[in-house]
Design goal:
Number of strands: 24
Oligomer: single chain
Bound molecules: ligand SPQ
Helix content: 25-40%
Shape: globular
Number of domains: 2
Strand order of the largest sheet: 1-2-24-23
Structural class: alpha/beta
CATH superfamily of the largest domain: Enolpyruvate transferase domain
Number of helices: 14
Distance between the termini: 16 Å
Length: 451
């Protein structure tokens, strides 16, 4: 039977996703399992490659971004089995032992791959590396990691005063630093901590607000000495470290769950349980905000999976109210702001998002792109330099919109389309495969059967 809500057209690897409103006959009901956490998947592959012995990874995300990380570390000499969700094995080669690849390393669309890898490469003496990425990644700022690495003694060259990829790295013996980062960024923090693994002494990063702490947790699990000081928001790694292969279980990605959380909250009649979602407190800002907006969300079956907290999230439709989002919560929901903007557009009253200027340097300028797309769909949105003001509730209208090749924009607009009147066409929707390869089939399944 043809799905009345979701259809797709492909031409030259470009997907036009056509989404019609869920009307009053369709609701999101039942259970859904989301793919593995992207941040944890990258780190499992990287630490597995740097460890001695075998690492096994269960639940790896099979998105384009972890595939880029796996390809880079294979080129650097790690043996990584074929990627699958059941069991990936990584035969690590030990810190300091990566081999010099004969060609460019390609991080694709992935900021995490490029930034974290720079810390690892810069601390591998007597080897030369070159690393690049796609159009989007080559326009994203790398100075934020090149600068602290250079203070550690790294030699890195690139366009625009060494801030844009392609980058060339001449590996060095580095010296430890205490870096006070001007931004709360897990990529900056992780890059420096990874450089600290091969560096004699204590390498510390202090952040203005706590960003996701998956690196600190996983480094510890692999045997590194990591000291965390919540009072000063600092993390220290003692080097030189030795990592030992581990069994990693990757929980479901709350950033992918976010699309279904909002979809079920705004499509009338919905009652959806999202299984096996990672609820690390550095990532759960989306839950705090949706609950503050009045969403009906409950956590069930809370448990621990290899050092990361996990739960099933049940969400039921109900009216939402606008709210204010800013300050220390931003790093805890930074990737969920596009989908929160959709929730805000249909919520009653005003939502103010501030302190979110970092969104301008993600895979796209997510503030400009979301504001423009939601305006085109009839929402009342004003773009601010560091956020958005959204006044709801709007009756959204179907429109022709574009993902700008940004996975989170593609998926956010598909969810907005479920509650719009008329047909929405999302161009370049194939971008969803970066973090959620099964997003469209899952959307098709959840909207296939009338209630
Ligand atoms: O890896 P990439 O491309 O930077 O991906 C994004 C995303 O939306 O998936 C950001 F665009 O996630 C980042 C996130 O925003 C992943 C990440 C990590 O794994 O360490 C940290 C965050 O970035 P940052 O710069 O705030 O540290």
């Amino acid at each position: 039977m043809l799905n009345p809500i979701v259809t797709s057209e492909f031409a030259n690897a470009r997907q036009r996703l056509i989404v019609r409103p869920a009307t009053d006959r369709i609701a999101l009901v039942g259970r859904v399992r989301i793919p593995g956490d992207k941040s944890i998947s990258h780190r499992a592959l990287m630490l597995g490659a740097l460890a001695e012995g075998e690492t096994t990874i269960e639940g790896l995300l099979l998105g384009e971004d972890p595939r880029s990380t796996a390809a880079c570390f294979r080129a650097l000499g790690a043996e990584i089995s074929e990627l699958n969700t059941e069991r990936v094995t990584v035969r690590g080669i030990g810190i300091g032992n990566l081999k010099e690849p004969a060609n460019l390393l390609d991080a694709g669309n992935s900021g995490t791959t490029l930034r974290l890898m720079l810390g690892i490469l810069a601390s591998h003496p007597n080897r030369f590396f070159t690393i690049t990425g796609d159009d989007s990644l080559r326009s994203r700022p790398m100075g934020r990691v090149v600068k602290p690495l250079s203070i550690m003694g790294a030699q890195i060259w690139g366009r625009r005063d060494n801030t844009l990829a392609p980058l060339a790295v001449n590996g060095q013996v580095l010296k430890p630093i205490h870096y006070r980062s001007p931004i709360a960024s897990a990529q900056v923090k992780s890059c420096i901590l990874l450089a600290g693994l091969a560096t004699e002494g204590a390498t510390t990063v202090t952040e203005p607000a706590l960003s996701r702490d998956h690196s600190e947790r996983m480094l510890r699990a692999f045997g590194a000495e990591v000291i965390v000081d919540p009072e000063t928001i600092s993390a220290t790694v003692m080097g030189p470290a030795k990592l030992t292969g581990q069994a990693v279980i990757v929980p479901g990605d709350i950033s992918s769950a976010a699309f279904w959380l909002v979809a079920a909250a705004i499509v009338p009649g919905s009652d959806l349980t999202i299984e096996n979602v990672g609820i690390n407190p550095t990532r759960t800002g989306i839950l705090d905000v949706l609950l503050q907006m009045g969403a009906n969300i409950t956590l069930e079956n809370e448990r621990d999976a290899a050092g990361e907290p996990v739960a099933d999230l049940r969400v039921r439709y109900g009216p939402l109210q606008g709210c204010e989002i800013g300050g220390a919560i931003i790093p805890r929901l930074v990737d969920e702001i596009p989908i929160l903007a959709v929730a805000a557009a249909v919520a009653q009253g005003k939502t103010i998002i501030r302190d979110a200027e970092e969104l301008r340097v993600k895979e796209s300028d997510r503030l400009a792109v979301m504001a423009a797309a939601l305006q085109k769909m009839g929402a009342q949105v004003t773009e601010q330099s560091d956020g958005m003001e959204i006044t709801g509730p709007a009756t959204l209208q179907g429109a022709e919109v574009d993902s700008h090749t940004d996975h989170r924009i593609a998926m956010s607009l598909a969810i907005a389309a479920l509650v719009a009147q008329g047909e929405t066409v999302i161009d370049r929707a194939e971008a969803a495969a970066i973090s959620y390869p099964d997003f469209v089939p899952t959307l098709e399944r959840l909207t296939a059967s009338p209630i």
